[in-house]
Amino acid sequence: MTNIKTLKKEVAPYEKSTTKESVWQMINTLGPFFLLWFLTYQSLSISYWLALVPIVIAAGFLTRIFIIFHDCTHFSFFKSRRANRAVGTAMGVLTLFPFDQWGHDHAVHHATSGNLDKRGTGDIWTLTIDEYVAAPMKTRLAYRLYRNPLVMFVLGPIYVFLLKNRFNRKNARKKERNNTYLVNVIITALIALVCITLGWQEFLLVQGSIFMVSGSIGIWLFYVQHTFEDSYFEEDKEWQYVLAAVEGSSYYKLPKIMQFLTGNIGYHHVHHLSPRVPNYRLEDAHNNTEPLQNVPTISLLTSLKSLRFKLWDEENKTFVGFKAIKSSAKSKARIPAEAKPEL
């Protein structure tokens, strides 16, 4: 692996945003989203099933809106920090995320991704085999529920987006708390306005459906980009930022239309190596930086395998399912006997 200084130097030219490209991305994202939202609303007068077509497409554009929000929290979407904050807060209203709170948690995620000694903030709950076996029954049950696809991808968006994001984290600074309050007030006012104008039932059918689809997409993307067979996890003394970025973050190779709707976030290894690269330059950074092309690559088909990955096997450096607990226990039980010297 190219050393950290060389690799960062190669990616550095792509860290500059341009106002023209950023504004154009906002236009080609927000415009179609609101148009599709209106088409969905109009389709309800005919059939909800007909409305499902624009709902799914609108959910894709809402995912793209989140990527703009995401870039703004890294202060990479615009050169101006003030512009990033203003646009990011606005996009946070549409995606139900407070700018400062999520920016803090996500920054911690980048600084600790793959570090076994620094888990718990901005990441997906991950236990090692030994930790799971040693955990009390209630913790193991909670972990199994958490890792259940129905809980993670259906109930997860409801909990995280609608509930967790509405409250400040412990020890949050005043600026962060005030931003959360501001976003909550604006969200409440917008919902009230739309409900009064169009009707609360119509609002729930349109926005609720779009939210559920996009929320599941968002959590799936975050999950699959760090939960693949040969991912990267190390204890703090062995942990390395670059290795965590290029080995612990996947290149999710998606069809072009899905790559567009997900704001190139499939190039997650590039993003983790350098969060200052705006989403519209991630592909170029990947294509023009040879070491970045030799990273864990997953496709739509192979990414489905990640659903069976539940625990991290420290001994073999790989994700495994719950069934691996028994084989791991048998393997460890054989070690003393095999290690005995012959008489």
Write the layout of secondary structure elements.
Layout: H1 4-11, H2 19-43, H3 48-73, H4 81-95, H5 99-112, E1 127-128, H6 129-134, H7 137-146, H8 149-163, H9 174-198, H10 200-224, H11 241-247, E2 251-252, H12 256-261, H13 268-273, H14 282-287, E3 297-298, H15 300-303, E4 311-313, E5 318-320, H16 324-339
Parallel strand pairs: 1-4, 2-3
Antiparallel strand pairs: 4-5
Helix pairs in contact: 2-3, 3-4, 3-10, 4-9, 8-10, 9-10
Overall tally of structural domains? 1
Unreliable segments (pLDDT under 50, ≥5 consecutive)? 337-343
Q: What class, by secondary structure content?
A: mainly alpha
Helix content: 55-70%
Oligomer: single chain
Instruction: Kindly state the number of beta strands.
Output: 5
Strand neighbour order, sheet with most strands: 1-4-5
Portion of residues in beta strands equals under 5%
Sheet with the most strands, sense and barrel status = 3 strands, mixed
Number of helices: 16
Write the element-wise H/E pattern from the N-terminal end onward.
HHHHHEHHHHHHEHHHEHEEH
Distance between the ends: 46 Å
| Overall form | globular
- What's the average pLDDT? 92
Q: Which radius of gyration do the C-alpha atoms yield?
A: 22 Å
